[in-house]
Amino acid sequence: MKNLLTFKNVNYFYQTKNDEIFALNNVNFDVEENSFVSLVGPSGYGKTTILSLTAGLLTPSSGKITLDGEDKIDIKKIGYMFQKDFLFEWRTVWKNITLGLEIQKPKDKEEKLAMAEELLKKYDLYGFKDQKPRSLSGGMRQRVALIRTLTMEPKLLLLDEPFSALDYQTRLSVCDDVYEIIKSEQKTAILVTHDISEAISMSDKIIILTSRPATVRETLSLNLEGTSPLKKRETPTFASLFDHIWRQLSNEETAKNKT
User: Fold this and answer.
1) Was domain 3-258 assigned CATH 2.60.40.10?
2) Over the stretch 21-30, which tens digit does the pLDDT of each residue have?
3) Domain spans of the chain, in order of start
4) In angstroms, rounded to a whole number, what is the distance separating the alpha carbons of residues 234 and 219?
């Protein structure tokens, strides 16, 4: 399968008022087309930096990042989902979804508007298109945010803790919804999460990072049975995978605290 994203020997430094911080050290990994990849690691040690580098918001100090065969990051090929849905309360669901089209005015705007309408119908939100976001549940708001992103037809979705603001029960349901939409629309996604269970249940591959300067400690390829993240949590190998990743991260926390 073709690699959509490649990090090759990527290093990243940044300057603070008093010091230079070595954030990433020789990071190497690939993300294949139509795959779902999760980044897990110690808190505050490189995961979001990797997303920012992928999106072209930061430039690597050295090394090479390739997106869709190109060395130069094309921001139009990136879709970003954050912890908050960032829906504007004074705009309707439809107006929120089409905001990017209003701003960018692409040549194929009519085609993208038609696609947005079809996505709303496909994922049971069409009846809410003229309502304001305040009338939606947390899960519905995240589906709207994802459809807004998909309407711009990105090649790669970057998900930065998009479920962390939800209560546990809603989080499980929304994970299923988002996973179904991403897989159905044949999109490639990278998820940053502190939730090991979430990473295992949603991912084809998990990249475990070390503490700073972060590098790839281990890459796990997963092939769990089950049609949804919730079902995958019930598989026999789920617990052993959780234990393995938890031990890896615990070792990193122990090493970090000793330095």
Assistant:
1) no
2) 889 999 999 9
3) 3-258
4) 22
